[in-house]
From TrEMBL:
<keyword id="KW-0560">Oxidoreductase</keyword>
<dbReference type="GO" id="GO:0033743">
    <property type="term" value="F:peptide-methionine (R)-S-oxide reductase activity"/>
</dbReference>
<dbReference type="Pfam" id="PF01641">
    <property type="entry name" value="SelR"/>
</dbReference>
<dbReference type="GO" id="GO:0006979">
    <property type="term" value="P:response to oxidative stress"/>
</dbReference>
<dbReference type="InterPro" id="IPR028427">
    <property type="entry name" value="Met_Sox_Rdtase_MsrB"/>
</dbReference>
<dbReference type="GO" id="GO:0030091">
    <property type="term" value="P:protein repair"/>
</dbReference>
<dbReference type="InterPro" id="IPR002579">
    <property type="entry name" value="Met_Sox_Rdtase_MsrB_dom"/>
</dbReference>
<dbReference type="GO" id="GO:0046872">
    <property type="term" value="F:metal ion binding"/>
</dbReference>
<comment type="similarity">
    <text>Belongs to the MsrB Met sulfoxide reductase family.</text>
</comment>
<dbReference type="InterPro" id="IPR011057">
    <property type="entry name" value="Mss4-like_sf"/>
</dbReference>
<keyword id="KW-0862">Zinc</keyword>
<protein>
    <recommendedName>
        <fullName>Peptide-methionine (R)-S-oxide reductase</fullName>
        <ecNumber>1.8.4.12</ecNumber>
    </recommendedName>
</protein>
<keyword id="KW-0479">Metal-binding</keyword>
Length: 158
C-alpha cells in the first residue's frame, strides 16, 4: 500500500455492508442518463471524482441554506455544516440526519468510507475521521460539488 493510501486508510471510518443497498428512488440507468449531465452521471452513478479545486461549491460559504442531491433533490447538508478544509472539495462536518449512507470502499488498494445519498444512492464522496479539524464531530465529509445543488432556502434546491 502506498504512503498516501496508508494515510487515507488510517484516517477513514467505515461501515461494511453485506448486501447491495436499495434506495427509495429506483430510477433506471437510462432514466438517470436522461436527467443528469454526462459528468453528473459519471460521478453520481459511476462513483467518479471531480478534479480538486474545480467544483462550484469548494469555496462557497453561505451562512444559511441547504445543499441537495443533484440527482434526486433530497436535502443532504445544511450550510452551517460546511467548513474550510483546504482539500479542494466541499467539506462538511455533519449531514442532515438520515440523509447520507456510509459504505465501505476498498477501491484503489485502500479502505475508505464512501458516502451516498440515502434517497437515490448517488455517490457524494468519502468521509474521513480524526484529521484534527476543529469541528464538533471530528469528521470531514469530502463531497464532489457536482453531486450537489444549493438552495438558499430550506426548501427546494435550485
Amino acid at each position: 500500500m502506498s504512503f498516501f493510501g496508508g494515510l487515507l486508510n488510517r484516517f477513514s471510518t467505515y461501515a461494511p455492508t453485506s448486501a447491495p443497498m436499495e434506495y427509495p428512488d429506483t430510477r433506471t440507468e437510462d432514466e438517470w442518463r436522461a436527467i443528469l449531465s454526462p459528468e453528473q452521471f459519471r460521478i453520481l452513478r459511476r462513483k467518479g471524482t471531480e478534479a480538486a479545486f474545480t467544483g462550484e461549491y469548494d469555496k462557497h460559504k453561505p451562512t444559511s441554506g441547504v445543499y441537495h442531491c443533484a440527482g434526486c433533490n433530497a436535502p443532504l447538508y445544511k450550510a452551517e455544516h460546511k467548513f474550510t478544509s483546504g482539500c479542494g472539495w466541499p467539506a462538511y462536518f455533519d449531514c442532515i440526519p438520515g440523509a447520507v449512507t456510509r459504505h465501505e470502499d476498498r477501491s484503489f488498494g485502500m479502505t475508505r468510507t464512501e458516502i451516498v445519498c440515502s434517497n437515490c444512492g448517488g455517490h457524494l464522496g468519502h468521509v474521513f475521521k480524526g484529521e484534527g479539524y476543529p469541528t464538533p464531530t471530528d469528521e470531514r465529509h469530502c463531497v464532489n460539488s457536482i453531486s450537489l445543488k444549493f438552495s438558499n432556502k430550506n426548501g427546494e434546491g435550485k
